[in-house]
Amino acid sequence: MSFPQPKPEVPQLPQNLLRTIDCQQGAVRAVRFNADGNYLLSCGSDKSLKLWSVSRGTLLKTYSGHGYEVLDADGSYDNSQLCSCSSDKTVILWDVATGQVTRKLRGHAGKVNCVQFNEEATVILSGSIDGTVRCWDTRSRKFDPIQILDEAQDGVSSLKVSEHELLTGSVDGRVRRYDLRMGQLHVDFINSPITCVCFSADGQCTLTSSLDSTVRLLDKSTGEMLGEYTGHKMKGYKLDCCLSSKDTHVLSCSEDGHVYCWDLVEGSLMLKLPVGKAVVQSLSFHPSETRLLTAMEGRSGIGFWLREMVVCLKCDVPLLPWLKYGIN
Amino acid sequence: MASDSDSDGDFVTFGTPLEPLEEDEPLRKPVPLHEQTVKDEKGRYQRFHGAFTGGFSAGYFNTVGTKEGWTPATFVSSRQQKAGRQNARPEDFMDEEDLGDHGIAPRQITTTADFASGRKDVIRDKARAITSLSAPIPGDTVLEDLVAPARSSMGVELLRKMGWKDGQGVGPRVKRRLCKQRADSGTRAFVSASPPNGLSGSQDEEDGEFVPENVTFAPKDVTPIDFTPKVDLHGLGYRGLNPLAALRGGPGAGHINLFTMDSDRSNSLFGEDRKGQRRRGGVAGQGFGVGAMEDDDEDIYHRDIMSNYDTVLGGEEPGDGLYGWTAPQQYNRKKKDHSKDAAYLGKILEGFTLASDKLETKTIFPPPNLPRDFRPVHYFRPVVDLSSVSPMVAQALQTSRGHMAQEEPSKGGRHQLDSAQRRELLGEATLQGPSSVFDLLKVEDRERLSGLRRPSSDTSSGPRQPTPGRPEQLCSGCRDSPAAARASAQKALSSRFTPHAEQQQQEALSVWSGPTAQAQTGQTFKPFERTPHKQARYDLYIDQLKQGDRDALELSLDPTMTEWERGRERDEFVRAALLYKPSSSSLSCRFTRGKQDDGVEADTVEVTRDQENDVDDKQAAVKMKMFGKLTRDTFEWHPDNLLCKRFNVPDPYPGSGFVGMPKVKRDKFSVFNFLTVSESPTASASPAPQGVKPSEPGKRSRWDVSGQAGNKERKEKDPVSEFLSVARIEASGSGPEASTTDGPTTDPTVEPDTEQKDEEEEEEESRPSMDLFKAIFASSSDEKSSSSSEGESEEEEEEKEEGVRSKAGTGPQISNQLNVNTTQPAPPVSTTPSQNPDVVFKMPSGPAAAPPPRDQEMEEEEFGPRLPPPSSTLTERRPSPTPSAKDDKHKKKCKEKHKAKKHGKHKKDKKQKKKNKRHKHKGKQKKSSRKEESSDSSSEGSDGNSQEDGEEGGGVSTEELLRRLKGIRGKNLQ
């Protein structure tokens, strides 16, 4: 067991706002760290995908080519490729450096909610509201998917890939785990539309957030519930949840403008990060450090803001000024 | 040499440089042909074809014509001046360009041929080409070529006098990087002789890391290429008998080197580095035979190997010292660095580098070690039936092997049961027909066969006695005496009706007359539904069978048909009866009948048996938070082979032909399936609840929305959603009463909304599946096209007003807020563009302002959890302690896109009343437009449509679909 830390530590939670980026993309549908956490991708509703440097907070590249708002994006393990999906029913594979569209993958019958590379960026997996997950081959020149997973009975809202497993969450209230190695499909019934699914870093657990305002930690192999995290509000929107990089905490967006952070083992609410007043749309945790990325709408109405928080080691330090008007 | 050194200065650029290409810039139109002119510095057309460079200078669009055609403007006869024009020089016919710097006769002091290096010789060549035209043989300067003086340029002579050797590198000393290009090939010439010290040192440095910083190196040596004239009459590359090599023996070069170097040749002359080194006496050469005394003839015929040649053009490193000559070389190329690529990429996209650290290597667990004495051979032990072996043998077998196959069926697991044992377990009736082919044989034949096969035992463990059905079978022909004659005649007539078929007929009879078949009535499959008459006959046949009628087939067939047709139909019926025979009750309750039966166009959706029949259990389990076994289903799932390959995973089912889930009937509740389902009676029976926005005050998910919509009967039907909604109301405490806390401004907005909702519910019943069509076919394009519809002009006006007001009112507020944030650039600037109505409406895809309303429309058509709306104002929510609830309510209000736009920008509480009024108005307007639209669902309606569907569709889609599904499922289970 990795998670109960032997010695009491300062809770490794991102608490201070480091930087706010106005990405001027309209609504930010998703923010994602890349594989090593040095860059971040923001998916805008203005059809653009932007690549930012985390350390400098500067815009590196804008990728435009989608016909409608970009809903999700992912970077390959070596940063050489990006993929993004959009409401225009397409999945696009980008060349990072030139910003050109390497491949535009059509085939979904509805907007594409989520997209992921597999570990070696040889397959793009995309889940759509048409209830299918399509596996696109990035190696071949064929434009047909390798396989279509149409087991979901409703739209696929979230999707994650591990080494040989594929985790999908669907609006039909089921979490499906396709085990390629075993050739098995495990279906866990949650009974509420799934908004986000995650693997834990050790690969033994899955985290699902659903529209009944609950985040559940399930044992991957048996499907038993290991933890249940409530308190936040997730009733109508497709919001993200995630685990911290060391699997110590569970984080979830909330519709009340906070990011909720629970202790993974105890299930107690550790932190309620006030991000703003609006709905926190998306969040992403740094793959190795204690950094959090949140996206929510901005206060000027047009700009949308990315927030990145870094750990504050002295936790009794008064909160930063932006919090003062963040909470009512 | 001197002119070479000042290299860059004397390039002349013509024209203006191209502008650097902008990425996003659209492609320009190509310039039409007649505008593609080049002019010189005086504005004249630049000639590409001068009179002395192969063309004319008339220059009308780079042609030889003029504007007037071929007619010269003024013609002056030169007849009189013929005598005076005797000695016209070429320069008389030249233009300035020809006499200019780059013309053919420059009027400047230039280096003569002696001092000129390569570039200037071009001019001279031109001149020679011209003079060659007047040569004895036109086009060829034969004489000059023959008597070309052997001379080298003055620079070379000077260098030689300074001690320069041919091939030595010339130029300033260079740093390491350049010197690196001194590749292996450059030094190769010297390798066989004595390699100079410096060279070997440099090679070391190439490999190694030791590169001193401030050390420069002489430029690279150039291997002079030996242009030895070909003097013999052999074919190209053929090296005939070499009298010089005759005494030393040994074959010539293995490979004909067209461009041998001096050093190479000397090597071959001395025969030092030949691999064979076998000296033979006598004359040898290519194509020269072997003498009688010589034993081997391997080298007579020259064999060339393709590896001696370069197969790739330009694949060499630039500094290989050959300068394009394709002499065979062994290049030991260095592998390219990946880091170099990354650096390259990093230059392109500033601030971005590829990941340097690779993927973590996977831990691969080795297969378990096999025991030392394991032999990977599997042999099948013969299955021994205890009954067939004497007890002594059985005992011996048991002790020796430790087990007896088939000894105890109950121990062996279900896979080792045979059909008879399974039948017993399942409680089915024994088949009436013969259980094995053996039963059909005569007794003595059987015994003979079994005697033959005794050692390997027989497979049928069932009772060997003749079954009760068998004697009937054997004498069935003579039992029915009236039909017997006919049957025998038919047998002769129809070749299709074989004895085997007759046996099948008996089988069918036994199957259908059994008790299980009697139990299930009315459920029989209709295989001939396409042709009702035939189906009727088939039904009759089945009925007869059920009554145990023996000649059911003959009775049911149509006597008016021809014999052939009847024989065919007989055959078909028997087969169908066997194929669709009633399954036994214990089994049939386990299987769901396939809805998509062959040949029948089923308009129902298949039901997955595993997932559907215990949903209630699962829901109960979820209720009790008993996740685990109760909520988990595991299916066999076949990934595509290629997918496995891409994931670096072995195919779990190698050789399985299909992908996906094999054991479960497909039911894909995609939107397409519901295009046909919408006609199903259950869908129309249960009124559509919808119109409930996902942005209901309580913020319910769309799944249990119906409970709030006042759809009572559905509530009763669906305990789960009831439970969930109740639970949610309890949990969140945000029922309808939550709205009361929101203050006076938002309250009135709720009521009109619900009214409107109800109205839309009624409409929804009449037209249930429109939202589906919208969800599928409404693309962004047609939504865009709808932006130029009805109420926009007034919206625009209102927007303008509001823009002005909000500029005045909210400007300071915003800036106040934003001042706190340090990174925010100039808030007023960011707000103004969106308030400009022109921008908003002309550019629907504008970055800031336009997308939000579209988002909302789109969102509400879609299924599942929505994305948060891009803009919900903060100031509107400012007074309320529970911002989100208000926000939701607010969202509900701003269904119209113009409002959504405004919400993003203007944060006025006093706006709200106005908006509400307008909202009501809109609702009515919408209703009317909907009615119009039903008559003409054309482009005009698309706007109102998308709005309305935005309102109802969000709920309808999933909720409605779910209910339909349930209805279907219920129907199926009946």
From TrEMBL, chain A:
<dbReference type="Pfam" id="PF00400">
    <property type="entry name" value="WD40"/>
</dbReference>
<feature type="repeat" description="WD">
    <location>
        <begin position="105"/>
        <end position="140"/>
    </location>
</feature>
<dbReference type="GO" id="GO:0000398">
    <property type="term" value="P:mRNA splicing, via spliceosome"/>
</dbReference>
<dbReference type="InterPro" id="IPR019775">
    <property type="entry name" value="WD40_repeat_CS"/>
</dbReference>
<dbReference type="GO" id="GO:0071013">
    <property type="term" value="C:catalytic step 2 spliceosome"/>
</dbReference>
<dbReference type="GO" id="GO:0005737">
    <property type="term" value="C:cytoplasm"/>
</dbReference>
<dbReference type="InterPro" id="IPR051980">
    <property type="entry name" value="WD_repeat_MORG1"/>
</dbReference>
<keyword id="KW-0677">Repeat</keyword>
<dbReference type="InterPro" id="IPR020472">
    <property type="entry name" value="WD40_PAC1"/>
</dbReference>
<protein>
    <recommendedName>
        <fullName>WD repeat domain-containing protein 83</fullName>
    </recommendedName>
</protein>
<feature type="repeat" description="WD">
    <location>
        <begin position="21"/>
        <end position="62"/>
    </location>
</feature>
<dbReference type="InterPro" id="IPR036322">
    <property type="entry name" value="WD40_repeat_dom_sf"/>
</dbReference>
<dbReference type="InterPro" id="IPR001680">
    <property type="entry name" value="WD40_rpt"/>
</dbReference>
<feature type="repeat" description="WD">
    <location>
        <begin position="63"/>
        <end position="104"/>
    </location>
</feature>
<dbReference type="InterPro" id="IPR015943">
    <property type="entry name" value="WD40/YVTN_repeat-like_dom_sf"/>
</dbReference>
<comment type="similarity">
    <text>Belongs to the WD repeat MORG1 family.</text>
</comment>
<keyword id="KW-0963">Cytoplasm</keyword>
<keyword id="KW-0853">WD repeat</keyword>
